[in-house]
Every structure is written in structure tokens, then in C-alpha cells.
Amino acid sequence: RRPEVQSLAELFGGPGAGDAVEWRMPENHHEDSPFHLVRLPGDERLAAQIANRSKRAPLANLS
């Protein structure tokens, strides 16, 4: 999942956008939880483009 999100960020956000994606675990997460919080470069448009292209799970821009 991480490589997919980073590749889509690069596709829609331009060169270097994939490297700017930040991942973290939610507070009080269960260690077996597959969920992460993702900070994307740019505005909400990038998050929407990635979510629409991925079609697996909703993403939110946390900036």
C-alpha cells in the first residue's frame, strides 16, 4: 500500500512528491492495525486524486 500511495503522489504531485509522503500510526493504535495516517504534500486535491485512483480506501490530507 505504501509504494502505491507514494507512486500516485509522484504521478499527480510531480517529481519529489512521493518522497514527501509522511506516514505515522494513529494514537493508541493496536499493533496489528493496518491503518496509518498519511501526510501528503500540497492541498486536498492531491489526496482526492490518490483516493479516486486507488479506490481501495479513503485518504485524507492531514496538513
Strand order of the largest sheet: 1-2
Shape, principal axes of CA atoms: elongated
Radius of gyration (CA) equals 11 Å
Number of domains: 1
Class of secondary structure makeup? alpha+beta
Percent range for β-strand residues: 5-15%
Give the biggest sheet: 2 strands, antiparallel
What report would you give on this structure?
The longest helix is centred in the N-terminal third of the chain and has 12 residues, at 2-13. The chain is an alpha+beta fold and 63 residues long. It has a two-stranded antiparallel sheet. The protein has one domain (2-54). It has two helices and two strands.
Summarize the structure.
With 63 residues, the chain is α+β, with helices and mostly antiparallel strands. The protein contains 2 helices and 2 strands, in the order H-E-E-H. The chain has one domain (2-54).
Question: What are the main properties of this structure?
Answer:
63 residues, 2 strands, 10% strand, elongated
Element layout with pairings:
Blueprint: H1 2-13, E1 22-24, E2 37-39, H2 44-54
Antiparallel strand pairs: 1-2
Helix pairs in contact: 1-2
